[in-house]
Amino acid sequence: LLPRLLERLAEVLCSLVKSSFLVEKQPPQVLKTQTKFQASVRFLLGPRLLQAPAKPYAVRADMVTEKQARELAPSAASRPLRAAHNVVALETNPTSATCCANFKNVLLKKIKRCERKGSESVTEEKCAVLFSTTVVLAPSNLTVQLQVLSLPIVVIVHGNQDNNAKATVLWDNAFSEIDRVPFVVAERVPWEKMCDTLNLKFMAEVQTTKGLLKEHYFFLAQKIFNDHSASPEDFQSRSVSWAQFNKEILPGRGFTFWQWFDGVLDLTKRCLKSYWSDRLIVGFISKQYVCKLLSTEPDGTFLLRFSDSEIGGVTIAHVIRGQDG
């Protein structure tokens, strides 16, 4: 019985130790090659359990593909991270009783792409940084391999990919389950969940406490579903796909729903933040509805809305009555 108990104890201890190795500062989730980035990992049980080694334990950071993240035993040969400064000492600070490895300027030199499925673009490909080290625990001399994955990362090589990469990251952060196979995420989500996500993103990006309203969601639903006959209630029960969000071009336009929405975020953040926060802009409203609203207003009344045809543009509608009324 005793040997079995000891074995079980070692297993439980290993499991506890492994789960106390965490990413404290995540790498950027949209990462451009040839750009330095920072990250840090923390070993919560380090100050209590680590033996004082002759030379410090080293933590290694490797970029792994989605497939490698699933297998979580990436062989050194297939590591696609071509990075400088990707090995750092795991240091214990007696004053703060912390045990951390701080990666101050890791540089991803280039990325080796995977084979893609069908119409997948490079900005839909997710990787992650795998942090790993091997430590010896005191007093039992137990050797444990510690591994932890960062959040998913989309690697880009050019600034013009940034917008699509942000869409992949937003969808993954918003709709992935906590205990999932890396990095599986639903292809379709309820429209209500999408509304919450767009609202949180809008408030965070623009840095305002004034979020989206029911009428804004109605306009956004008409746009993403290309349906002007449904009622707000009809949209409640629908679900929206990743393709509708950022793959299919909006009818008669040269951009996707997300590309348009991201332009609105950027515009509001840069130029219209105070007006939006004071509720002086309707913004998300259709041309037809604007005409209806303004038709009964006095001359000189005007209304600002986000342009339908230009990314990050504003359309101003105003009332001028002709001689004929």
From TrEMBL:
All residue ranges annotated as the SH2 domain in the record: 260-325
Alphabetized UniProt keyword annotations: Activator, Cytoplasm, DNA-binding, Nucleus, Phosphoprotein, SH2 domain, Transcription, Transcription regulation
PANTHER family found in the cross-reference section: SIGNAL TRANSDUCER AND ACTIVATOR OF TRANSCRIPTION
Subcellular location: Cytoplasm; Nucleus
Name of this chain's protein: Signal transducer and activator of transcription 6
Family annotation (InterPro entries): p53-like_TF_DNA-bd_sf, SH2, SH2_dom_sf, STAT, STAT_linker, STAT_TF_DNA-bd, STAT_TF_DNA-bd_N
Keyword Transcription: yes
UniProt key word Phosphoprotein: yes
Superkingdom of source: Eukaryota
Transmembrane segments: none
SUPFAM superfamilies (alphabetical): p53-like transcription factors (SSF49417), SH2 domain (SSF55550)
Main location: cytoplasm
GO biological process: cell surface receptor signaling pathway
MF-aspect GO terms: DNA-binding transcription activator activity, RNA polymerase II-specific; RNA polymerase II transcription regulatory region sequence-specific DNA binding
GO cellular component term of the entry, any: cytoplasm
Family: Belongs to the transcription factor STAT family.
